[in-house]
């Protein structure tokens, strides 16, 4: 029986490669971590409102406004007709002067928010032209007051 000599280079090759694998894995880990850190510095984030903490102190007023809206016999409603957003105020609120604001809130970019004073026509409708608003997801926020009582409703709207 003849004994053959073992080839040392083929036997040691796997043993010599593991340090390179650890180095490559470490480089990938560090690169991914640094990429994530740089990415987080480029993300723009805005609070929902600039004075977020002071707003939380008066949030019960907001809850009362929403509760008042739910107590109406007819709800505040909206529809889109011919590139116009039509916001309909219930008849029971139109008995006296209606004041308030309509806000088109854009969660993804606070600089795009639009606020309008409520100006009702004879049918109790406030209309907003949609030509100046960017396409995408918006939040319609209607805050009105009538006879000393405040009402608030909000609706998600997707403009195409």
What does this entry look like structurally?
The protein has a four-stranded antiparallel β-sheet. It has a domain at 52-159: Immunoglobulin-like (Sandwich). The chain has helices spanning 8-42, 52-57, 59-70, and strands at residues 77-81, 84-88, 98-105, 114-117, 125-129, 136-146, 149-159. Strand 6 and strand 7 (149-159) form a beta hairpin. The mean pLDDT is 85. The chain is elongated. The chain is an alpha+beta fold. The chain has three helices and seven strands; from the N terminus they run αααβββββββ.
Given helix and strand content, the structural type is alpha+beta
CATH architecture call of the domain at 52-159? Sandwich
Main sheet strand line-up: 4-3-6-7
Helix/strand order: HHHEEEEEEE
Average predicted local confidence, pLDDT: 85
Uncertain segments are: none
| Number of separate strands | 7
Number of helices: 3
For the sheet with most strands, the description reads: 4 strands, antiparallel
Measured between the Cα atoms of the first and last residue, the distance is 84 Å
What's the CATH class label of the domain at 52-159? Mainly Beta
Look up the CATH topology of the domain at 52-159.
Immunoglobulin-like
Can you tell me the overall shape? elongated
Helix content: 25-40%
Strand fraction: 25-35%
CATH superfamily of the domain at 52-159: Immunoglobulins
Radius of gyration: 31 Å
Summed up:
The chain is an alpha+beta fold and 160 residues long.
Features:
160 residues, Immunoglobulin-like, four-stranded antiparallel sheet, elongated
